[in-house]
Amino acid sequence: MMHPRAGLKAVQHRIGALRRAVVAEVEDTNRLIYHVLRGGVVVSVSFILFAFVLRGLGGADIPPNSIAVRNLVPELVRFTPAGYLNLGILLMIFTPVARVVLSFLSFAEERDRTYVGVTGIVLLNLLVSVFLLA
Amino acid sequence: MSPIDVLLLLALAAFLAGIAGSFLGIGGGVFLIPFMTLALGIDIKVAIATSLIGVIATSCGAASVYVRDHLTNLRLAMFLEVATTLGAIVGAVVGLLLPGPYLFGVFAVVVVYAAAAMARTRETAKDRAYQAGEESPLASRLGLGSVYFDQEDQGVYRYRVDRPVAGFGISATAGLFSGLLGVGGGFIKVPAMNMLMRVPMKAAVATSNFMIGVTAAASAFIYYSQGWVNPNFAAMVIVGVFSGSNLGTRVLIRSKAQRVRFVFSIFLAVIGILMAIRAAGIV
Predict the structure, then answer these.
(1) Domain ranges of chain A
(2) Is residue B79 within 8 Å of residue B142, measured between CB atoms?
(3) ipTM of predicted complex
(4) Helix, strand, coil proportions of chain B in percent (round to 5)?
(5) Domain count of the fold of chain B
(6) pLDDT for the residue B253
(7) B255 pLDDT exceeds 50?
């Protein structure tokens, strides 16, 4: 049997390695962007599947038109299938936007002024698209 | 067809579009829109809005792998996204105003162009390493050049980006078509990046695939806010594309891409003709 102290050391070693791996993942911008994009899709799909479950459990029909963002909260509070389906779709639309925000922060951290400007314009365009006809 | 049949067929089509998208480096919209409108009889504006969501799903799914593997040129992507997002906003607004038959007509022309762009020649190591003349001052100021590792011949290629201004203009056009027709626009950007800007093919495909997500997001929300996104259709497309692109990146072997590309270009040409017929109001 392993000595308790050796065992503790082994566990500490494992945690240290794990922590370094996590830090490396976060510090590499490319990997971080990869995780944000994948994560966004997974969360979006999860809400869509949740909406299907609600519908299967006898929730109301899902209307054929998208629900405006300002009307979404009451639907979510009442746990309607349509509310969660629309939430999943909106999260899908905003996943690339989150990626641009992340790029903006990473360029700012690198003090790369040119690209903070370029990324800022892309974000501005996206903001225009959100408020243009809404 | 019952509504359930329509949903199941749409999910299946999205699944196939997801496989094709991850394999050919396209968003899958050129495939989904004709299927939704011609086969399922869905209104073209609803189809465009739905397809944009599918394009985002493809970009986030399959293309994110290229980012992790450092194939994507993040700086070049961000620079060109300034143009594609602007184009996409204009495209979406015009798309909402244009009557359906015009959209079919424009789609037909764009798809035939895509067919021609698909049937392109193979790239050699010499092409990948091509560098001649002076680097443009703008490309140098923006640090657009990059390095990538080619898995096929195990080579590391350092490349420069030529003609950034022309590439910017073409990207704006690609964005416009994306917002107008609900496609990714990769078939416009990839040849432009590869032939005009001298970006190696794989880096061009990866960068284009990465860009289509933000481009589609810029117009998708406009369609969403106007109520054109059908949540049921969009859900089928997201789930279908998600599973298709996951399978596509895992199962399919890259070496056969050239042959698939050729078959796909013929397929696209046929779709173009069908859409043109529909635009003319014969069917």
Answers:
(1) 4-131
(2) yes
(3) 0.85
(4) 75, 5, 20
(5) 1
(6) 47
(7) no
